Amino acid sequence: MDLNSASTVVLQVLTQATSQDTAVLKPAEEQLKQWETQPGFYSVLLNIFTNHTLDINVRWLAVLYFKHGIDRYWRRVAPHALSEEEKTTLRAGLITNFNEPINQIATQIAVLIAKVARLDCPRQWPELIPTLIESVKVQDDLRQHRALLTFYHVTKTLASKRLAADRKLFYDLASGIYNFACSLWNHHTDTFLQQVSSGSEAAILSSLERTLLSLKVLRKLTVNGFVEPHKNMEVMGFLHGIFVRLKQFLECSRNIGTDNVCRDRLEKTIILFTKVLLDFLDQHPFSFTPLIQRSLEFSVSYVFTEVGEGVTFERFIVQCMNLIKMIVKNYAYKPSKNFEDSSPETLEAHKIKMAFFTYPTLTEICRRLVSHYFLLTEEELTMWEEDPEGFTVEETGGDSWKYSLRPCTEVLFIDIFHEYNQTLTPVLLEMMQTLQGPTNVEDMNALLIKDAVYNAVGLAAYELFDSVDFDQWFKNQLLPELQVIHNRYKPLRRRVIWLIGQWISVKFKSDLRPMLYEAICNLLQDQDLVISILNLFYFISFYLQYLETMFTLLFQLLQQVTECDTKMHVLHVLSCVIERVNVQIRPYVGCLVQYLPLLWKQSEEHNMLRCAILTTLIHLVQGLGADSKNLYPFLLPVIQLSTDVSQPPHVYLLEDGLELWLVTLENSPCVTPELLRIFQNMSPLLGMCDVDAIELFVFYFYHSKKW
C-alpha cells in the first residue's frame, strides 16, 4: 500500500466508518476489514492518528484499528503478520513525539505502545525505555505528561508477564531504572506539596497528576521488580518514606476543597500509597517484616485515635483496616505450635506483632470498633426506615455494600477477636454487662450502642461459646426486647433477630424453640422486620402446630416483596420448609401452586429467580408425591423449556431442570403422553454426555416396563 496515495483513501473510509448512517458505515467497516492484512495499512493509520489537524473521531478510530492490528498481526507467527521492516518503522514512529493533545487518544496510544512493548521490549525495541526516560525529563508539560503516561502503561504491561525469562528481564529493567523512578516521583511530589499552598488549581492538578503517574510506575517496579526487595536499600527507603508522604498528603486535604477535581486526585493518590503497601505485603510478606511496626502504628493511629479526625475519608479507613487485617491474618507471620519448627523470619514477624498488640491497644481497638464504627449512621437508619427490603438486600451482598466501611470493620473485628480472643472476650463481656435490661426508647444513642454491642456478640458467637450463657440471655434479655413494640425499637429488634440467627446454630436449647416460634409468628406480621427473619428459617426445625401460620405468612411475603433478590431468598426459605416437613406440607401448598405460574411468567428476564422457582418445584413435587400430577399443566412446559439446549435460558436452568424432570418421573404413577414428549430433549443432552441426562435415561429405561 503506497502511503501517499493510500492516506487519502483510508482517511475517507475512516470518516465514513464514523457515520451514524448504517448504509455508509457498513461498507466502510467491510473495506477496513479487507485492508487489515495489507502491507503499509498500519503505517497509514499511524500517520492519520498522529495528525492533530484531523477530526478527533477519525483519529480515535484509527488508533483503535491500529491497536486491534497489534493483537492480530504483530506476532511473527500470526497469519498475515506484519513485516519486520514495517514494524521497525512503526516502532520508531510511535515514540517520535509525545505531544498528543487529546487525553483519551493519548491513553489509547500509551496502551498500544505497551502492547508492542510486551512483544518486542527489550530485544527488538531496546530504545523504548531510554527514550521514555529522556522524554519524562523535558520541561514541556504536555510531552512530559504523555511520556510519563506511556512509561506507566509500559511498566504495567511488562510487570504482568509471568514466564521466567520475562520475569528476569523485568528484574533487570527494575534494578536499572528504580533510582530514576524514585527521583522522578520525589521531584513531582515535592513540586505538588509546594504548589498546594501557593499555586493555582490548574498547577496543583498538573503536578498531582504527574505525582500519581510516577507513583503508579514505582508501585509496579517495587512489587514486581525484585526477588528479595528487602535487600535493596532504595526499595526499602521508598517504602519507609511512604508513611511520611502519606502524612503530608493527608494534611494537604485540609487545604483542598471537598468538591473539586484536585480533591478526587488527591484521594486517589493517598489510596495508591496504601495499595503499594498492601500489594507489597501480599507479594513479599517477609520483606515486609521491617514495615510491620510502622504500618500498624500508622494505621491504628489514624483509624482508632483522634489523629485521623478531619483528614481521613472512608476509602482510606478501609485500606488501613485491610492493612491491619492482612498483618493479623498473614500465615507467614504465624509460628507453628512447636516454635522450633518455625522459620526465623516467621518468629521475628510474630514477635513484632505481639509487641504491638498489647492489652491496652487491643482493648482500645475493640472498643472503638464497637462504639464508633459499628454504630448505625443516620443515613443507614433513614434507608432502612424508607426501604427495609432494599436495605437488607444491599446489606447482604449489594455491590456498593461490598466496598463500604461497615463490612470492612466487621471483618476486621472478627479477625482480631479470633486471633486475640483470650484478651478481648472479657472486654466484650463487660460491654454486654453494662447493657442488661430494657433501654429507654427516647435515648437513641443508647439504642444504637446496644445495637452495636449485639452486632459484636453475634459476629463473635463461635469465640464466645464457652463464655456466654445464650439460653439464659435469650429468655431474660433478648425475648423481652423482641416484644417491645415502640417504633424506635425496630432497629434493635431487627438486630436481635439477626443475633439469634447467629447463635442458633452455635448454642440454643431445643426446649426454647417454641418460645422463639411464637415470637417469629408475631414478628412476621411486621413488614419492616420480616426480611430480617428469613435467615432464621435455615436453622430451625418446625413444630407442626406453627407450620400453617408460618407457611401462610411466608407466602404472603413472597407476593408482597418487589426485589428480585428478596423473592429468591423467600423461595429458598419456602423450599427449606417444604424439604423439612415433606408430605406434611400438602394441606398448605395450594396458594403457592397457584401463584408460581404467574411468578414464572413475570421472571422471564430473571434466570436466577427462575432457578429458585425450579428448586421450589423440586421440593414441592417430592412433598406432593403422586399428587404432583395435578401440576403437570405448569410443570411440564417448565421442564421442557429448562432442558431444551436450543433455548438460551438453558445455560442457567439446565441443571435444576434435569433434577426437576427426574423427581417428576420418580413421583409419577404412570407415564403420560405429555411426559413422553419431553424426551425429544434427551438426544441432544445425551450427545453432550450430561451425567444428569444419562441418569434420567437410565431411570426411564429401568422403570418403563412397570409403567
UniProtKB/TrEMBL annotation:
It comes from Cebus imitator (Panamanian white-faced capuchin). This is Importin-11. One of its GO terms (molecular function) is small GTPase binding. GO terms for biological process: protein import into nucleus. Belongs to the importin beta family. InterPro entries: ARM-like (IPR011989), ARM-type_fold (IPR016024), Importin-beta_N (IPR001494), TPR_IPO7/11-like (IPR058669). It is found in: Cytoplasm; Nucleus. Coiled coil: none annotated.
